[in-house]
Every structure is written in C-alpha cells, then in structure tokens.
Amino acid sequence: MNKDNDIDQLFRDQLSDPEIPFNEMDWKQMEAKLDRQQKKRLVPLWLYGAGGIAAALIISLYWILVNPVSVDQRVIRDTLTNKKPGQHSVIPFSVPDSVNPAADSSQLQPGQKNGDMLAGKIEQPAKNSIAGTENRLLEDLTGHPVWRVPSIKVYPFVSPETDSSRLAEKANALAHSKDPAGRIDANEIARSVKQKMENSLQQNHEVIVSAMAAPDLSFAKSSKPSKVSSNVGMLATYAFGSKISVTSGAIYSRKFYNSGGTAPQSNNYTPGADWQVNADCNVLDIPLNVNYKIFSQKKLAISLNTGLSSYFMLKEKYQFITGQPGPSQQVSTLEINNQNQHLFGIANVSVSFDHQISPSVSVGVQPFAKLPLTGIGYGKADLKSAGVSFSLNIGLFPAKKPGKYAAVQY
Amino acid sequence: MQSIIHGCIKKDRSSQYLLYKEFYSYCLAICRRYSLNDDDAAEVLNDGFLKVFTYIEKYDLTKPFKPWIARIITNTAIDHYRMNLKFSDHDDVSEHEEIGHAAAIYDHLAYKDLLVLIQTLSPAYRTVFNLYAIDGYSHEEIAGLLKISAGTSKSNLFKARQHLREKLKVLNVNQPPDSQQEKGNLGVNKEMAIKQINTDE
Prior knowledge:
The structure holds 2 protein chains of 2 kinds. Chain A is built from 8 helices and 10 strands. By secondary structure, chain A is an alpha+beta fold. Chain A folds into 2 domains: 71-200, no CATH class; 204-396, Porin (Beta Barrel). In chain A, the strands form 2 sheets. Chain A has an 8-stranded antiparallel beta barrel. A two-stranded antiparallel sheet of chain A has the order 1-2. In chain A, a hairpin with a 2-residue loop joins strand 6 and strand 7 (300-322). Chain B contains 10 helices and no strands. Chain B has helices spanning 2-9, 13-34, 38-55, 65-84, 93-103, 109-120, 123-134, 139-146, 150-173, 190-200. The N and C termini of chain B lie far apart (48 Å). The chains are: A alpha+beta, B mainly alpha.
C-alpha cells in the first residue's frame, strides 16, 4: 500500500504544475475556435427571426378570424355613397337581399310576391326618378333597406292589374330615350358594378400571408434519382400595386440529394474507385422574391415570380461510399451543424396560379425551380431543386377602418 | 485577475488572451497527462478553454479560480476520453513510437519522463490513474464520471500502477544509484529511456 502511495506521490509531484512555455500557435487556434462559435450564434438569431415571423402570422390569422369584416357590405355601401346627385340611373337594379356579392342582375327576378310588392310601391319613386330627383330608400317585406328602381328586367313580372304596367312602359321608354343616363342598359350597369365589386375584392389586400408545403426533387452534379425532398413554410406578400408584389418568409426544408462519380487515377487514396455521396440536409430557406401578375380575371390570377433565396444549413449529414458494393466498399459519414450559410446564394424562378375561394382566401399552385449561384453546403454542391408548391393564402388589412360597417348586416 | 475575468464575461478578446496565457501552462499540464500526445492535449486544452469562456459568467468570483478551471479542463479531458473510447482502447507499439518522437522536444527531463510513462498507459488506465492518484477523486466519483463500476476503477488503478512500476524499473536501470532517491530529478538518460520504452514491447 505504501508502495502505491509512493508511486502516486511521485507522479503527483512531477506532473501537477510544470512550467510549460507559452505557444502562440495554440492561442491562434483558440481564437479561430472563438470566432467559429460567434459565427454559429448568428444562425439561431435567424431562427428566432423565422419564429417571430411565424408568430406574427398566427396572431394576424387569429385577428382575422375573431374580427370578420364583411367586405360585401362595404362594397355595397361604397357604391351607394359614391353616387353623385342626378346619377340615379346608375343603380337601376335591385340590390339583392342576400349578402352574396356575386349576385348579378338575374336576382332581380324575385318571384311573383316580390313583383307584386314592387308593383305596389315602385310607382312614386319611378316618377321621381323621371323627374330627376333623388332615389328613395325603400323597405322590402323583411324591413331591410333596399334600393328599388324600375328596370326593364322587372317588367315581365309586374302584375297587369296594377299601375305598374304603365310604369314599365315609361321605363321602357326611358331605355330608348335620348337621355344618356336613361339609355344605359341594366345588364351593362350590373356588369360594371359587379366588375367594380370584384376589383375591390381583389385589390384591397395589401398583405397576404401564405402557409405553403412543397415536395421537390433535388439534384447535384451527375446524381442518381434520390428521395423526394420536402419544404414547409410561412410567407408574407406585400403588394405595391395591382401587378407587382414582393414575397418573403421562412421555409424549412429537408433536402435529400446525392452526387457520384469515379475518382481520378491521380487520387492518392482511392484511385479509380467509384464514389457516391448521399446527403440529407436540414435547411432554412429565406426567400426574397418579386412577383408580377400577368393575368387576372375573376377568380384566377397568374404571376411570374423571381428572386433570391438564402440557405442556412442547419444540419448536414453526408454518407460517403467508396468502391463497389461488397466487403471492399468503404462507407463513412459526416454530420455538421450550422457551419454553412449562403446569403442570397440561390436563384428562384416560379409561376403561380392562384384561385380565389372567398374575398380574402385563395389557394395557389406554384411550380418552381431553385438554382444555385454558389456551391451549397460542406461539399459545395451544385444543388438544384425543382418542385411544386401548394399554398393557402389569406389577405390581411382589407379595409382602412375595419369594423366601421360591421354593424350593418344584410 | 478580477478585471480579466470581468473582461472575459464581456467577451473581450484581449482579456480572453490574458486569461489563456495566465493558465496555459497549468491547464496544458492537465491535458497532457490525460492525453495520448501533445496534439491531442492541445485540442483538449482549447476545447476546455472554449467552455471556460462560454460559462465564465457562472463562475463565483468569491471562490478560487484555479480549482474551477481545473475542473472544467479535467471534465473536457474525460469527455474526450469517452469520445475516443471505441477508437483507442488498447496500448500498442505505434503509440509508444509516437510518444518517443514527441518526447524529444520536452525541456524538463523528469517531468517529460513521467509524462511519457503515463502516456504509454491505455486510455482507460491513464484516466483512472490521473483521477485517483493525481487529482484525488474517489473510486465512487470515478465510477460515476466514467460510467464504470467502482470495482473496475480499482482494477484499472491497480493495473496502471503495475504498468508504471515496470516502466520505472527500466528507467532506474539507466540512472546512477545516488540519484535514485532524489525527488524531482530521476537523472534518466532520455535517449536511453525512449529506446528502452520502444524496445520493451
């Protein structure tokens, strides 16, 4: 035991605190380590940023859902309030009782009952309109305020037993008169108002948030087919006008790709051997794209989009396979985290097709391609991706003063 | 010292340099006796200092700094041991040759000789011997740190001492009898010692 203590004591005394001369080279390596650590810390800041964007979008969605604003009411009201004196014939149709903004002039056929009602009440306003006075706000059977003005459309439904036949004749005459206001065809007016309503619906959203998911195929140089890569993300689009908008956000991607070839004979380690690299990378993609709307009609919009993406390589896993399958085949793996960032290192091109399903909601399909401007990841891969993105888009900030008309229910 | 630590808390590079320089020798000595060679030791040293700089704000200024930094460096060395466990769980001739070349650049003979001896131990023996004999850990603590049983720790310590005694015999054969008792100076002919170690296997 004493012998044990002696040997322990000997080593303790000799090895515990020797004088080792300082080596500046070791400090240089230490500094490089510290620099790398600081660089690594930048990536989580981006992650926090992405998280912040996602949280903001969720809050916005919540705001939209708990404070529904009826765009329909506002458009109708705008139509009424924008009317100038003497322009009574601009609205010679019946605003439908329903809140359906897409209602067209065919809804002017309210059935016999409504026709009777019209026939009974419409005479005086019609006369007034002929006399050039203001239109009157009438009430229908449900007590809701509705603008009623005679038009050719209602003519066939007017009961012959009432004075409305006379009224219809007058209206018909109006349509053929030389008065420009009177000659405007009811259908044409209805169409123009409907167009105006649709335009209002489409253009009022300055900010659109989108949730997207996209499968894609990623390729590097001379690669074989690999597994399908996946992308999910939240994007925000800001419109600068009716045609141009910009989109940014955060997309989390899991990219699978591979690369392979034959090592040259000059290679010291594995001359002439076949090699393959299988990659599995988790990437944070921050795009900044410009969109130009080339087609927009009714519920369909088509845009061309281009821009740049920044890739933040959160995790890169590589499997290096050398040699033919069999006992001589060598497989090694490498995993690195947060080592590579490619600021604006990828070009994006895409075409998007958006279908409006409600005034503030649309769905989109977007074939896209991502082309590298720089080598991506540890292996500086020429990583291209092509796929189709599916998105659900929700328009925000539809009115300057939402809720102002919320009390008016139709 | 306090101002250097405060500077390190603020991530001031010049303060970090001063702290690194101040404790370089002390910490590198720990790393060297836990490592296989100088290169490994330098790697452990810098990994340990990275932890020191990262967690320095958790250091309690009222307590002595040396034990705190020693504990971090020792833990880093153990982490490296665990990481390399599967790759270097044996003691072979090629390692001795490498150590022999590394030993040629040491300045203090006695220190170098004993360092060479401890580095010839297998990582498992070396780590237990370091923790128990030099750093004063108990077998129970070592068992917890290395995820082994206390019995294995005792057994490894026994084998490490046995191995070191055999190597010391080789050194003693090559030194004058009057200097054998002299602590801190084994009076070993360096070239002979290395030669002996290399031909010993």
